[in-house]
From TrEMBL:
It comes from the Archaea. Pfam families: HalOD1. This is Halobacterial output domain-containing protein. Residues 15-87 form the Halobacterial output domain. InterPro entries: HalOD1. It comes from Haloterrigena alkaliphila.
Amino acid sequence: MSAPLDHSTSDDWGDPSRAIIEAVAAREGVDVTDIEPPAYEPLFTAINPEALDRLFRNPAEMATARVVLEYEGYEVVVHGDGRVEVSDPSFDPDGVGQPVED
């Protein structure tokens, strides 16, 4: 069973929309250029990438901000400090939760 979270941290905090694609690619074990239709939905089906990037344009002002979205079956959390967490919402570390229905 895989770990529930993958973290992507960048020293040069660029566009969060790009960081989401990079984190999902890492989680999927594919190259970032593979995260495109038809195998993957465009990011804009989950969030407006331009609006997300504008929101985090000034990291100092957004240091404590957090945006949560679902993309490609993962829960994605973008933090104002540049971290992107990708977790599998069906992962139950205790093994006692309800089964996840598709």
